[in-house]
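Summary: Need help interpreting a holo structure output

Steps to reproduce:
1. Submit the protein chain below together with the SMILES for pyridoxal-5'-phosphate.
2. Request a joint structure prediction with the ligand placed.
3. Inspect the structure token block that comes back.

Expected: a single structure record containing both the chain and the bound molecule.
Actual: see attached output.

Input attached:
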Amino acid sequence: MAPDGQSPASHAYAPRTAPNCYDAEPIPASARAEIERLLSTGDLFRYTAPEGAPVALLEAEFAEMLGARYALAVASCSAALFLSLKALDLSRGARVLIPAFTFAAVPSAVVHADCVPVLVEVGSNYRIDMADFEAKFDDSIQAVLISHMRGHTSDMDAIIALCEKHGVPLIEDAAHSLGTLWHGRNIGTLGKVGCFSFQSYKMINAGEGGIMVTDDPEIAARAVIMSGAYEHNWKKHPGLQNSYHLWQNKLPLYNTRMQNLSATVIRPQLAELPRRVRDGLANHDYVADRLNGHPALDVPPALAPETRAPDSLQFNLTGDWTDAEALAFQDACKARGVSVQVFGLSQDNARAFWNWQFLGDLPELPQTRAMLMRACDTRLPARLTRDDLDYIADAILSAASEIRG
Ligand SMILES: *Cc1c(COP(=O)(O)O)cnc(C)c1O
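--- attached output ---
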């Protein structure tokens, strides 16, 4: 239990307990009345009501919040990435550049879309190595999918310039970047399509869910149909009539829609987002400053154009740590009640590219591998108190000193 529910007196004398970093915030009470209405009417399918279904309202609100023309809510961010690639109408077997530091669901979405992921090196600051990106961006590349892993933004100015030079579309995997800005613009609106997640460990929690945004009416129309707007359900999506006539019955239906209960849980959380983003960043920077005071730990800084919206913290073990020491550090954090994972040292980690055996022959990526072997990951939800943050920082610092003196 976090200590913030305790009275000041009991708090002063209470033994310090590790904060729970896994529980989400409660769903705002304002969702309850609409959930009750859905339960009592059974109106769960997004296309039953003639208008004003919760999923449609969410799409309108989300598009407006991000400043995008179209939004399509679906079952997950992975489904949104899959539909985005399908909506680009790439040829079968198209090669798609993706960073080698991401979640296994991202190369999986590429494979699912009949494309071939081409993995690009990621540096010790968790961002795409631009020299490798440029070297691998040859004429065989038909799309670029930038995964802003753990909310870290790569050099989008350079990436966009190269995509424009090659005339290749850019998809943003902004699953973990809701609220992040690049030169003051919303991440997820820089490329052709941006995809976000509502899975429980992201900024907005519906258990599962995803949404894609685009300004391109053809991409929006194609994605809407393929998401499962069969027959004339597309009429319940605003503003795309001409494009739909073009695609009706020409595209497969992958049926990966969002249902009304999910949208009802999400909508009242949109108003909470500015607070979560503000507190998440303040929490992150507070703990980062404390960890950076230790000679064997380093939290890489944000890039200059980037305003982050973190709900987790990544830091590197710097110097000549051995694998055994890194594992001992992980255990020492755990013994103090704080879960810290070295990405490359936990078995079967879905964020370590060498575990993506479904891709077949995996390239060797020494830079990304070196980063994964010393990069630590810990959750830092926006709701944590200053005491919680100090507990986490103290635990990590003392664990580092125990192992490295
Ligand atoms: C969570 C996450 C995903 C997958 O999102 P789902 O909604 O669970 O499919 C993809 N990419 C990144 C960077 C993520 O953090």
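--- end attachment ---

Reviewer comment: The chain has two domains: 29-270, 272-404. The first strand starts at residue 70 and ends at 74.
Status: needs-info
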